[in-house]
Amino acid sequence: MLYNFDEVIDRRDTGSVKWHYSDETIPLWVADMDFQAPAPILNAIEHVTQYGILGYTKPTEDLYDAIIDWHGSRYDLRLDKENILFSPGVVPSLALMMNVFTEAGEAVLVNDPIYAPFMTKVEQNGRTLVTSALTEIDGRYRLDLADIEAKITQHDVKLYLLCNPHNPGGRVWTTEELEAVLVICKKHNVAIVSDEIHQDLTLSGHTFTPFLTLATGYEHNVVSLTSMTKTFNIAGIKGSLIFAKDEGLIQKISQQQGLNDEYELNLFAYTAMRHAYEQGGEWLTQALAYIEANIDVTVRFLAEHLPKVKVMRPEASYLIWLDCSAYAKDDQILYDTLRAAKVELNAGIKYGHEGHLKMRLNVACPKSLLLEGLNRIDTALSDI
Ligand SMILES: Cc1ncc(COP(=O)(O)O)c(C=O)c1O
Questions:
Q1: Nearest to 370 by CA among 317, 284, 301
Q2: Beta strands at 107-112 and 358-362: parallel, antiparallel or unpaired
Q3: Which of 133, 236, 284, 317 could bridge across to 198 with cysteines, CB 3.0–4.6 Å?
Q4: CATH number of the domain at 54-279, out of 3.30.420.10, 3.30.450.20, 3.90.550.10, 3.40.640.10?
Q5: Single pTM value for the model
Q6: What's the 326 CA to ligand 1 centre distance in angstroms?
Q7: Which atom of ligand 1 is nearest to the CA of 227?
Q8: DSSP SS3 for 175
């Protein structure tokens, strides 16, 4: 089936977080796509509502098989049913991991910049936030391994929350980079939670490596978090996965989830997840091709119209990290100027100090909307 990603669907007045405006603003911010979800998922949900009995539901063997096949065939991540736990979301899982791996007050390491909940969940849960800035070399972020190790020893870090692929920088960390992280964490007995929610949106020329495929011998200290919601644009469904391979660790996570009864999903999430992993591949291939073309369009547009914006081309996902420091000197003015031009991007400063004068641009929308948004960005920044 051929999907039409050019179709502009009006999302105003639907309760959409992204389209919260009463005016003509174009939202190029929060990470969801303005594309309809894959037909097999929509059909499966329709089938459930037509059947009409929506009682208590548990994961079926078909669902476990779909998860195991998807991750095994795409990433060589070998999972057994016992390695798979369910969670309402990756962010709730990040919060949960504070209690799995740390005590109140202990230090948790994240990179800077980083998807904001990495920082807020650490602090809201009474842990000490420690950051290690990424360094930019030739337009790509790199992990500063010496700084990571220094921060670990200096603050007695117990847990490292890694984001792979990285949001907002778009890096897909290489096997070598991940192995270097593992060596440091092993040496200092630091647990690793790898948020891999953008894994399936890895773009051509890059290879995603699940952290768990490298963690043999250290599995008691490694957890991966992922979800079908980002991949297939069904974030409103809510639902995600926790992968762990050590029996004791799985028990500990289950116990923590049990405290709030947060280990199960709703019927629609189970249904969507199964059909996404069973039959979503065709949609995903087409969506990624469309996204890749939109990234090309954006890179070309900015080079031509706003050549002083430094563009970090993503290796995964549809979020482009823009350094606007040549056009603005104040984060709030930068954000407000774009908003006044009726286009919304995420303010980089929300992702940590390294986000100063940066903006995050979401290009997962019909090309016509993107081009209109880019024109508004051009007008706004040219006027600053
Ligand atoms: C890195 C990362 N983790 C987690 C999430 C959100 O996950 P969830 O909606 O499952 O809580 C996002 C959403 O953009 C994200 O970019």
A1: 301
A2: unpaired
A3: 317
A4: 3.40.640.10
A5: 0.98
A6: 30
A7: 10
A8: helix
CB 141 within 8 A of CB 169: yes
- Estimate to the nearest angstrom the gap between the alpha carbon of 17 and the chain centroid: 17
User: For ligand 1, which residues put their CB under 6 angstroms from it?
Assistant: 31, 89-91, 115, 163, 167, 195, 197, 227, 229, 235, 240
Q: What are the structural domain ranges in the chain?
A: 26-39+281-383, 54-279
The residue nearest atom 7 of ligand 1, judged by CA position, is: 90
Place of tokens 């097999």: 40
Mean pLDDT over residues 123-143, rounded? 97
The tokens describing 99, both together, are 């209690």
* Candidate of 91, 265, 350 to mutate for ligand 1, largest count of ligand atoms within 8 Å of Cβ: 91
**Distance in angstroms (rounded) separating the CA atoms of residues 370 and 80:** 42
DSSP string for residues in 10-77: --TTTT-STT--SS--EE--SS--SSPPPHHHHHHHHHHHHH---------HHHHHHHHHHHHHHH--
pLDDT digits (tens, 9 = 90+) for 2-49: 999 999 999 999 999 999 998 999 999 999 999 999 999 999 999 999
For domain 26-39+281-383, the CATH class is alpha beta
Task: State the Cα–Cα distance between residues 61 and 70, nearest whole angstrom.
Answer: 14
With tokens 């409103």, the residue in question is 236
